[in-house]
Amino acid sequence: MGLHLAYGPGDEQEGIAAIRRAHELGVTFFDTAELYGWGENEKAVGRAVAGFRDEIVIATKFGFTRDFGFDSRPDHIREVVENSLRYLGVDTIDVLYQHRVDPTVPIEDVAGTVKEFIDAGKVRYFGLSEAGPSTIRQAHAVQPVSVLQTEYSLFERDVEQLLPVLDELGIGFVPYSPLGRGFLTGAAKPADQYTEGDMRRTDPRWQPGNYEKNLDAVRRLTALAESKGATVSQLALAWLLTRGEHIVPIPGTRSVRRVEENTGAADVKLTDADLAAIDEILPDGGFGERYAGGRTPTWI
């Protein structure tokens, strides 16, 4: 996402190099969406992975409009999927997510439309993003939901209330923003120091009052990470990897160096004492709402 949306200007060639380096390091799951540049991100991902497409899983999403409204009408889904196949340069999308629940379209209609593509061999698996228990169950009854994607990190733990439903139905979970949109990297700076177009300028966690508390928590987490020979980013990702084998975080970056750092998290082993120390530092997540202006999704 960061190549084309929400984090200020990015260098597409550097981003493609980061994707290719990730593959070299054993990363096999790559996440994009129509929303990320309205096709430009999918095209970049397609170019980046063309040489090893059959070795990886590609996920993309439908459901937003250009003014950040929702549109999951069946005809619109069909249009977006055909575009995504063309932009990515693939015959099949491995995971197709509804990016956000559209309250104006019955989820059964959405699931049924995705099922058409699965039956036709153009999509392999159906995913939901930011959906709640009722929506998940209703969709699952029409077309099995393979995975739910929602924000989850040391800073954002509310989604833990949904995990029992996923366990019951055998649904995997993909945490997005597992590094707290960059706060859990040790590189956070005050909101007004980010460029125009960077969402962190208005993110509540970066606003005065919350920012200082979050910064202190990251300092304490950094000290714990360093005691284990790790970075704070690696600690945050390693913590998510202790949540379960079916939980697969997707840290985003435009940097080869950060890709190398992030993949190193798989080798960080956390003890019960480490997990207890982390819970003491951030027992309920970070300080500040997820989104400004009441835009945080409500799960139903």
TrEMBL record:
Pfam families attached to this UniProt entry: Aldo_ket_red
Tree of life domain: Bacteria
Keywords, in A-Z order: Oxidoreductase
Domain NADP-dependent oxidoreductase: from-to ranges: 6-282
CDD domains documented for this protein: AKR_AKR13A_13D (cd19076)
Gene3D superfamilies xrefs: NADP-dependent oxidoreductase domain
PANTHER family on file: AFLATOXIN B1 ALDEHYDE REDUCTASE (PTHR43625), ALDO-KETO REDUCTASE 1-RELATED (PTHR43625:SF99)
Protein name, per record: Aldo/keto reductase
